[in-house]
Each structure stands twice: as structure tokens, then as C-alpha cells.
Specification:
Layout lengths: L4 H9 L4 E3 L6 E4 L4 H11 L8 E4 L14 H10 L4 E6 L14 E5 L4 H9 L4 E6 L11 H8 L5 E2 L13 E6 L2 E6 L9
Parallel strand pairs: 1-7, 3-5, 4-8
Antiparallel strand pairs: 1-2, 2-6, 3-6, 4-5, 8-9
């Protein structure tokens, strides 16, 4: 069980940003409704404004209200690959703020397969985080607690320990679902196969 769970909750509720391990690479996250915290993530990473964040949770059903009804092909991918290293880009709902998606009408969603990340989501209000990788833009993603700490110490409010939960070190595959069409935006850890 994560120590400092009250501290993590307080940081998130007070527009804070945390770094954490996932199943792919280390991530940064904040509450999706906190514009102040989202802006902080862009500043920390020196991230281009037109690059959206994605929404992650410990359970897919927490993410449903942030997107429009998911096409059948998207539902198949969720059944087959969630939790895991797949980010699905879907049409967003009104609940997803424009400042998270760089004013795009789509949003990426993912459910990482990592025990520590799941515990963080249990602590987080509404169990959803707006996230990106824990590194400066155009730098390699952090693949260990030491790298994440080196990248982010002094910039984020907390680098959550990994409690020996390691990440694979390869980014998630990013796949857009539009009606019944799929578009691979980034080939990552998962090779999509639809039976």
C-alpha cells in the first residue's frame, strides 16, 4: 500500500502535479478539471501547447463519461488490451476540458496495468488523471524512479515511490477510433490485431 495517500490526495486537490510509475514509462499527472495544474504540466515539460494530455484511470468505466459512446471496434480493443499499453483516441464528451486536449475534439484514454498507478487512482478524486510522460519535451522518457526523480525533483509536488513496481520502458501504442476506422498514431508496446 502506498504511503502518503493523504498527501497525494491533498496535492491533487490543490492543483498539484505528481510523477508516478506506470506499466510503460513514468508519468506526470494532475486532476483533469484543474486548469492551473494542467498548465503547470506544460510549463514543467516545456511542452508545445498543441500536444494534448491523455486521461488515465485504474478502471475503464471511470473514463466513459469523458468520451462519446465508443464505437464497436473501440469496445473490442478495450476488451482485448485494457488494462495495458494501449491509448485509444476517441471523440470527447463535454466533461473533458479543452485545456486537456489542446482544443481538439478527441481525447486519449488508457488504463495502465500497474499496481501502484491503480492505487494512486483509488486515492484521486473521481479516479482519473490527466497525464503525460515524466520527462522534458524531446528528452527520453523516464524508465525508473531514479530517472523520474532526476527529471522532476523540484518541478513537481511529489515523485511517488515505485515500491519495486517497474515499467516496461516502451511507450503505449496510440490508436485513433473513428466510426469503425482505426488509425495508428504511434506504434508502441502493443501490436493491434483484431480477430
Amino acid at each position: 500500500m502506498i504511503e502518503h495517500s493523504e498527501k497525494i490526495k491533498k496535492i491533487l486537490e490543490n492543483d498539484g502535479v505528481i510523477a508516478f510509475v506506470t506499466d510503460t514509462v513514468w508519468g506526470l499527472g494532475c486532476l483533469p478539471q484543474s486548469e492551473k495544474a494542467v498548465r503547470k504540466i506544460y510549463e514543467i515539460k516545456k511542452r508545445e501547447a498543441q500536444k494534448p494530455l491523455i486521461l488515465m484511470s485504474n478502471e475503464i468505466y471511470h473514463l466513459f463519461e469523458y468520451v462519446q459512446p465508443i464505437p464497436k471496434v473501440g469496445q473490442k480493443l478495450i476488451k482485448k488490451y485494457f488494462p495495458g499499453a494501449l491509448t485509444l483516441v476517441l471523440e470527447k464528451s463535454e466533461k473533458t476540458p479543452d485545456f486537456v486536449t489542446s482544443n481538439m475534439n478527441t481525447v486519449g484514454i488508457r488504463v495502465p496495468n500497474n499496481k501502484i498507478f491503480k492505487e494512486i487512482c483509488e486515492i484521486a478524486p473521481e479516479h482519473v488523471l490527466a497525464t503525460t510522460s515524466a520527462n522534458l519535451s524531446h528528452q527520453p522518457s523516464a524508465k525508473s524512479y531514479e530517472q523520474a526523480y532526476e527529471n522532476m525533483n523540484g518541478l513537481v509536488d511529489l515523485v511517488v515511490k515505485d515500491y519495486s513496481e517497474t515499467c516496461e520502458g516502451l511507450e503505449s501504442t496510440v490508436c485513433g477510433v473513428f466510426a469503425e476506422d482505426l488509425k495508428i498514431f504511434r506504434q508502441g508496446a502493443i501490436n493491434i490485431e483484431l480477430d
